[in-house]
Amino acid sequence: MTREPIAGDRPVRWGVLATGGIAQRFAADVRELPDAEIVAVASRGEASAQEFAGRFGIPRAYGEWAALMADEEVDVVYVATPHSAHRAATGLALAAGKPVLCEKAFTLNAREAGELVTLARERDLFLMEAMWMYCNPVVLRLAELVRDGAIGEIRTVQADFGIQGPFAAGHRLRDPALGGGAVLDLGVYPVSFAHLLLGEPDRVQADALLSPEGVDLNTGMLLGWETGATALLSCSVTAGTPVTATVTGTKGRVEVPSGFFGAERFVLHRDGAEPEEVTADGGLRGLQYEAAEVMRCLRAGETESALVPLEGTLAVMRTLDAVRERIGVRYPADG
């Protein structure tokens, strides 16, 4: 079910699946791109879809997912549901022949992620995790400098992402059936940051504070590589952390200020040199970078992004699975 490359003389037409906070942010960013157009939105409730469509000037609103997939004018679907529904929503879109940009965490576990990757490859369709950090020009510049040896060999990576809370027992972050807990919602960012620089770890250790429902509220992770590099990562839904990142090597370090996953600058410390502030301006902002990467791929006829490769997404999901195994968090979908 291969789709032809999208011609450059018309906008790429997006369909948005779900109407929550991240979908609203995506719509606000993408509608400002000159070569993009959001033509449809779908939700499980028609009223929610209609309200979303009215707010963002979207011509069509559907009260069921299947209607969005059947819309012949939709070139690509952005899946913004809670991650507990990513497998079903993305699978439905791929089965209908639609390329997909799916929010992170990509799925609840590596098994589900593998099923989606297999389906996309069988149908020769584009699929990408919405890890916007990997499309950020500042983060890409950081990775390039580190890869080129600017700080020598990596020895440690430190990154955190915590929000204050508290969240009531009925909140999705406390519900195992919805993939609740800090690891999938927030921990995916520090883990993905470490993966970007070092690849899949050889060893995974973790400890956590669990809720009465059995999801993690506060988690620390220690990842190790055969090179001797380690990553000390944390995530929390009970405490607001600095949300910073540091990469230390044998010849210096890189410090990324608060909001490392959407970095606007970082400071490069090289041994024997003055600190250097590094910026990179790609001319866009926020979620526009990931949308632009998807559209570039679709126009080029590519089924996978070099910036957010599917094998990397699968590796991150395997690490997240290992973390949950260490801390004793299981979801009904794990079987």
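Second entry:
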Amino acid sequence: MKGVLLVNLGSPDSPEPKDVKKYLGEFLMDERVIDVPLWARTLLVKGIILNTRPKASAAAYQKIWWEEGSPLIVISERLQDAIQKQTNVPVGLAMRYGSLTIKKGLQELVDKGVDEVFLIPLYPQFAMATTETILVLAEEVRKAHFPKLTISDLPAFYNNTDYIDVLSNSISKHLNGQDYEHLLFSYHGVPERHIRKSDVTKSHCKIDGSCCATPSPAHQFCYRHQCLEVTRLIAEKLNLKEGTYSTSFQSRLGFDPWLQPYTDRTIERLGKEGIKKMAIVTPAFVSDCLETLEEIAMEGEEIFHEMGGKEFTTVPCLNDDQEFVDLLSKWINAWVSLETTTA
């Protein structure tokens, strides 16, 4: 029997400091998120970050928390329910971090008789700290607890034509009637070293002005290339004029170089350059969460206004948009119809 497991990032159980601290501890101790030796990661996370950051992060979560709970969790559950109505196999939900564990998600499917799982990381682009950590943990859990289970997964879909159509339609719909001067594509940032570590050629990714535009096998796992490609494909689809849109990266941590340009500094620059009306879309996320609802929609708007900007429009993530539901359901039903899958 086949089944599906949707996997998203995760969330604290509540916006209270103790729950945020527990969540941040699990998240930041992941060796694919902060990829330094264990002793250094422990010193940084447990010795510094968890003693300083939880209160500020909890305050941020409190700003965006819904009555039903964490926006990311609630939206993911809505997506799960909507997809379940369009497919005949069980659809489960799990998070990489937090209480809705991958082990729980797989166990629920196994309890329903599932022995073949289609794992869908809810990330359009591949990255060490998102897709890879989900796939690695899922395999560890499978080996330890469900050795008879077969797991296949949905590859990064950043350049899938249907996905680009869905995202383009969503952007068009939410910006319909909006008179904006600049559209910013803001993606979650990663350290530059993650790009080089994911380079299967060990030589292509130089993070210069040309490597992401030069065809290479490295692009299959290059987060930077995949982000830039989404921007390019959307701009092409929406007929955006050169100079009216750009790409940036948000949410950096620490002092090592991260992908640039940085979103906060880009918003600041656009305001200083006289842009009065800007819009921003966050295509690295499929569900609205702390990074989109607070960091972009609140902090980003505040920066823009401080720099003289007037109108700041945020495009929601795809969330449980019907076209996105239809697309994921289409991919799932195509997988279900296959007689065999590759583990």
